[in-house]
Design a protein that fits this description.
The protein has three helices and four strands, in the order E-E-H-E-E-H-H. By secondary structure, it is α+β, with helices and mostly antiparallel strands. The protein has one domain (4-85). Helix 1 packs across helix 3 (70-85).
């Protein structure tokens, strides 16, 4: 899975975490990491998150099969799918 993290200031306090993983993105949203945008590249949608130092910890939790509230995760997943597929009512 291709992910990346870049610093957006000289201090390295705030960066951008970029991932094409829909489920990882829903996990991060559920954990409260702000989604700052999306971009299309290489035929895929990448999700961009503000990284203020917690993303690495939450990504490790994701890959360690950490749990989050299922209804919150479902809402986050639905929100991201709307961004990827555009609009409501499409299946």
């Amino acid at each position: 899975m291709k992910t990346s993290c870049t610093n957006s200031d000289d201090k390295g306090d705030i960066g951008v975490f970029r991932t094409p993983d829909l489920y990882q993105s829903a996990f991060l949203l559920t954990k409260g990491i702000p989604l700052i945008g999306t971009e299309r590249a290489e035929g895929r949608t990448f999700f961009l998150f503000r990284d203020e130092g917690k993303v690495k910890e939450f990504v490790e939790q994701y890959f360690s099969n950490e749990t989050v509230p299922v209804l919150s995760f479902k809402g986050s997943l639905r929100e991201l799918k709307v961004l990827v597929h555009g609009g409501f009512g499409r299946r």
